[in-house]
Amino acid sequence: QGNQQWGGRYSAGPSAIMEAINASIGFDRKMWRQDIRGSLAHAAMLRHVGIISADDEAAIREGLSAIGTEIESGEFPFSEALEDIHMNIEARLTERVGEAGKRLHTARSRNDQVALDVRLWVRDAIDGLDGQLADLMRALTERADEHAATVMPGFTHLQPAQPTTLGHHLLAYVEMLGRDRSRLGDCRARMNESPLGAAALCGTGFNIDRHMTAAALGFDGPTRNSLDSVASRDFALEFLAALSICATHLSRFAEEIVLWTNPYFGFVKLSDAYTTGSSIMPQKRNPDAAELVRAKVGRVSGALIGLMTVMKGLPLTYGKDMQEDKEGIFDAAETMALALAATAGMVRDMKPDTARLREAAGAGFSTATDLADWLVRELRLPFRDAHHVTGRLVAKAEARGVDLSGLSLEELQAEEPRIHSGIFHVLSVEASVASRTSYGGTAPVNVRRMAAEWRERLA
Ligand code: ARG
């Protein structure tokens, strides 16, 4: 038997393998809400311009609403043979309301329909993820304010560099996530045009009102070129690119949690809620959630590369290749929702060991820069000379097995006779962080001010 939708031309059905490779209903059913929303707007417009009657529109509206209820309650008879969500809903509509259902597809193609549905889905996903990003940023800001003066080691090359504060470190991620939000916002603004009405590829001879459907669906206006409308998925690429960058940020933070919870670091502890034990080693406490967040970036940037590869070299306009856009988009968005939730959970859960952080902050001659800066300020040494003197003092302290404040005044003066006891004030980690008051610097007063600014912005 022929196909319900194109049975006129066809006398035989597809092979089982054709059906298996062709069908997308297994995954694109996720877009059912968007598909119904689009059809409602399309039907209202068709009636407005006089293409269908008010009775037809009412029947379509009722039918689609009933279908929504069926899908929600799990009673909708999804069919592989009907390929995708668009034809499943349309066929069911006709089953329920007859003739009127058959008129819905006037001046529309699945090509503009799917372009619309994916846009609506991505736009909804952006709005959801934006809320989650804001929540994570709020969690980080709260903890940053709480630990504005908690000194910890700052690293470069993962080697002790200078003392910083936990608050400053957490606010660094707030900055990154703020840019991630702004990237998603840019993507949303650029993609917010309606492709509905481009029809198959060339537009239509019916007197449709694309401005009306665009407005009804919350778009800034209709897209300007029908070919571009059905051929383009760069809005999805941009979405996946923004998510990939965000996932990279989460991965870096997750890696730090993995390091920090390692007993050799001992910087923070996670509770039972965000760790797992081992089935064989009774002492274990593994940071699985952090490890998984660290790894999730693989699927998200995988989705980006996947879709870029699908779109590359694809001649205009629509090609069935583009059906491959959906699983990556859905998976990336859902993965990010979970990763953001897990990260926010860990941020609220983690218990910093402030004594251990302070001890580590002073290790590795981390105040050597402060010492060199003191020589410049107090003795007017050129910075390069101060760097050399300090380097010799670090070597001396290392040989003696003490830190810089463990050297006596005589030992210091042996390298530079003008050094006086004032120098000991700058060798503590507290003095070091407090001194870094340059804009954006690590000083606790700065951190408190920045945390307050972020709190206000995120309110
Ligand atoms: N399931 C298709 C997709 O995801 C819908 C569009 C199909 N259009 C067509 N002309 N075969 O892209």
UniProtKB/TrEMBL annotation:
Entry EC no(s)? 4.3.2.1
* Leading EC class: lyase
| Keyword Amino-acid biosynthesis set for record | yes
Q: Which residues span the membrane?
A: none
- Where does it reside? Cytoplasm
Gene Ontology CC annotations of this record: cytosol
**What's a Gene Ontology MF term here?**
argininosuccinate lyase activity
Q: What GO terms describe the biological role, i.e. biological process, of this protein? A: L-arginine biosynthetic process via ornithine
Q: What is this protein called?
A: Argininosuccinate lyase
Give the organism, scientific name: Teichococcus rhizosphaerae
Gene that produces this protein: argH
